[in-house]
Amino acid sequence: MEKQSFFSGRRERKITEFLFLVPTVVAFIMVIIIPFIIGIYYSFTDWDGVNAAKNVVGLVNYKTIFTEPAFLHAFLVTLEFTVLNVIAVNVVAFLMALLVTSQVKGRNLYRAGFFVPNLIGGIVLGSIWQFIFASILPAVGKSLGIAGLSASLITNAKTVVGAMVTVNTWQYAGYIMMIYVASIQGISQQVMEAASVDGATYWVRVRKILIPLMANAFTISLFLTLTNSFKMYDVNLALTNGGPVAMFMKTPVQASELLALNIYNTAFKYSKMAQGQAKAVIFFIVLVVVSLIQVSVNKSKEVEM
Question: In order along the chain (305 residues), what is the average pLDDT of each group of 10 residues?
Fold first, then answer.
């Protein structure tokens, strides 16, 4: 009788857990899976977003976007922005984590202050920094005689990507910092103290002990930063709206238009829904492949460490 009641209770728990899981699974299928499958179908049609798709055009949309200078340029700019942003965010976040976990006075205040920018929405953030780049920094540059700051950085095709990296680092580094802080606090201080007694300097302890023991935190942080950089839309829209104009393949293109903004403009600004959907499919595949490569490489590094 006891065995029957035990197995009966376990069965009831599984049924209860399944019933709690069903609404989430159904919502995920309805909101994510089904629209994604429909979107793949639409990418092979002549759908215009208003009328139902009438004709299946095969790979025409995909062939078109790979010969489109604006899309190719957006792809390259997104790669450039992603590489710079991943490096900048993680370096700044790691240095801030070292600061707020040290014995410096007011470290809790610093921790809160570094995290606050992450609470600002992307549209508001872009508008604030647009004012800073357009008015404040040029005024400072002119008063101090700094030629590089005398003009807005977001109106120059050579500096606009760096400006976007600066803004995103200012916003996102505080969030990534908290991941590093949690990892550092999970490391036994006895290990660091023993290395200090043996004569290891602070930076040697960081490089030889702290960083290897934080390998899992680096994997998570790099993944989050990588996906965030690839999917960047709101700050790109509010800060530059893709501008300024630059030349690429003898064609005028938007110098700072990232992939997400290019997809949106294709679908809604130029009313090319099927072509925009084809770009979204390519975007999804690239993001998945890059993310899987990054995670697998970092996981292998964790094993080595």
Answer: 58 87 94 93 89 85 94 96 97 96 88 92 91 93 87 93 96 96 89 84 89 92 95 94 93 95 94 93 94 88 62
Cα dihedral 87, 88, 93, 96 sign:
positive
DSSP state of 146: -
Contact 153, 240 (CB under 8 A): no
Supply the pLDDT for residue 253.
Answer: 95
Cis amide leading into 244 (omega within 30)? yes
Residues composing the chain: 305
Long-range pairs for 294-299: beta carbons < 8 A, 24 or more residues apart: 294/222, 294/223, 294/226, 295/219, 295/223, 298/215, 298/218, 298/219, 298/222, 298/223, 299/219
* Domains of the chain in sequence order: 68-304 (1.10.3720.10)
Amino acid letter, residue 206:
V
Quick one: CA dihedral 142, 145, 146, 148, positive or negative?
Answer: positive
133 CB-near residues (< 8 Å, 6+ apart): 152, 153, 154, 163, 239
Rounded Cα distance between 170 and 282, Å, is 29
